[in-house]
Fold this protein.
Amino acid sequence: MIPNIPSLRHTDSGNFFLLAGPCVVEGDVMTRKIAERVVSLCDRLRIPLIFKASYRKANRTRVDSFTGIGDEAALEILARIRGEFSIPVVTDIHESDEAALAAQYVDVLQIPAFLCRQTDLLVAAAKTGKVVNVKKGQFLAPESMKFAVDKIRAAENDNVMLTERGSMFGYQDLVIDYRGIPVMQQNKVPVILDITHSLQQPNQSSGVTGGRPELIGLVAKAGIAVGVDGLFVETHPDPANAKSDGANMLHLDRLEELLVRLLAIRAAIA
């Protein structure tokens, strides 16, 4: 199932769709560099692409963690990428009053996992008329995401996507229950597997979230085999020096190899 976004390309390819980009807008040059690489790759492989970058990171562990370059500056960068490359763009929102502002610049509003039960936030996003991607809370059963879908549909917006991003396993690890993917697909919405955040290792004593990026390929292949509609991946040309979530991001140079392998699995099970 493919989301209904007019500017989404290659929707007739039969491939999974992809949400990909850096964790956060670090600046114009870096964001554009990543976009150019990812767009070119997805056009060549005929993968429907939604470019992803957060304009602000509100949920940080430490007070000195990077949160962004400024809301309007970051949103304007996303708008330029959207226009220059003619691709849809997704970004996160964290409070209800952000929805209308962000909706002026992007095609998809994303609700972070920790906020997926916030009714006012879901309704505000829905009322913009944009596609709304709700990440499943690390603390929720997949069956519970029905209620997030209901809230958005009750606001007269049927353009909903759900994302599996792992469930807490103790205090410092996450696991993916792949049974949840078909459960969430019962809501008749596209279901996405986040193959980078699901490998996070939160609650580290340093205040910086860890990760297991060497397992990205493994969880992605399993997700495609299960029948997920789309994949979410954060990627960066220098994860070790990324300003947010570098510990779980995929190096940009490894993205093509991963996608080619995933397309082969998709073709084999089609």
Q: What stands out?
A: Residues 66 and 109 are 21 Å apart (CA to CA). The longest strand covers residues 230-236. Helices lie at 28-45, 71-85, 99-103, 119-127, 145-154, 180-185, 216-226, 255-269. The radius of gyration is 17 Å.
